[in-house]
Amino acid sequence: MTPPVVAGSSDTTGASKVLGLRDFHPFEAFGARFLYMVPSAGIFRMDDCGSAILDALEGGPRTEDDLVAELNDRFDIDRILETVEELTEIRAVGGPDAPKDEAPNDLPPADFPLNTMVLNVTNKCNLACTYCYEYGEDKIVDTQYGSQPKFMSEDTAEESVEFLLRQSGSQPKAHLTFFGGETLLNFPVLQKTVAYARRRAAEESKTISFSLTTNATLLKPEIIQWLADNDVGVTVSIDGPKPVQDGLRVFHNGRGTYDVVLPKIKELIATHRSRPIGARVTLTQKHLNVLEIYRHLTDELGFREVGLAPVTTQEHRDYAITPDSKDSMLEQFEELAAEWLEHALRDEHHGFTNVTDTIEEIHKGVSKAYGCGAGLGLLGVATDGDVSLCHRFAGSPEHTIGSVADGVDREKQEKFLVDHHIAEKTDCHTCWARPICSGGCYHEAHVQYGDSSHANLHYCTWVRSWTHTCLEIYGALAEKNPKFLERFDA
Questions:
Q1: In this predicted structure, what is the pLDDT of residue 174?
Q2: What is the pTM of this model?
């Protein structure tokens, strides 16, 4: 394949090339210097000569002859020229008038396979969490008076399995996750769906893996045993120690849930050993002691994995995280990230999945055209079988792109893919973190701006800071324990 021509990289008159810095983000780890390339998401370690060339270009474009003249007392001329060529090839340097690299504005093929289907088996919940995106003040779906049934029927669930098998194309594996409402309110359908999906997948020479999210209030010994026997991954929505949990995660009568879920969670963790049990935490302005929450869930309750996410809500809510509190939250995230690195350098597990997930994306060179796989490799199914962008939009007519009975409306899907492509988010075009972020969560954007295609500008600074931290961690592992990174190759 012929490499792309870099504007300014050659001059047929014989004049010295003029070079300038292009689009990358520098970071360091253990004294080593790295470049994170934008938008390709490649990572390159700089040697002394490469670093010297980049430093020389910090003041502005220079000719190749100028670079040689400035650096030939430190490096051999051939080495300087070879390094310039290498930096040009990776597009770290190039002609100062060269157009900015952007993600190709190409849409995925119409038959792009479905990897993950989120089945909203119920839109009812036995809790009344104030901040819940589905039941709180920011809800976009009327789950109380809306037309969708409260529970998904067995027939709709089976149709959904058939939809997943068809839409997964030639892929041998697919994933089905159960969601709600409170998922376990429809446990009988969940049981029958797993059995049906496993049988049908085998008939199609495929395999389907399963997971669910639950608030843990309805866990019973027989349910826990079934989850373990059927290798169903479990994520528990829980916000921390008793004062935190009981502050917002309450029953409809206002009673806190901590004392109810504590023994159930401990039994779940003790019994279900085939898959790591994870906790999913919603952080709010009312409870932002990230370190206390993480330590309680891992050290005291025994969760193997913990992921923390700021609440999705409008800024005027009393539980919305303020700008100053976002800074405090970031500092605590960074402290946990430093712990994660210490463990990784010793080849030990650390359960802070916010780091794990980002490091995996960095290692795999992920450069996103979209904020996530919603509407493409991931779809959500409402209780009536309507197919939406993801589980958070399930039941919203505005975000419905088909049904499990009739399939995906390709015109609606294509419009979504065009409108939500990174190329359409002009605010993102100058941001070095766009390969990882690509504008962020569509549901967050819908709540904040009333438009799911809008970039989440209120979190830009936070995302850049967090991504830089994770890049430093990646560089540190590349220097001191590169073998650890091999676990992300799968």
A1: 98
A2: 0.93
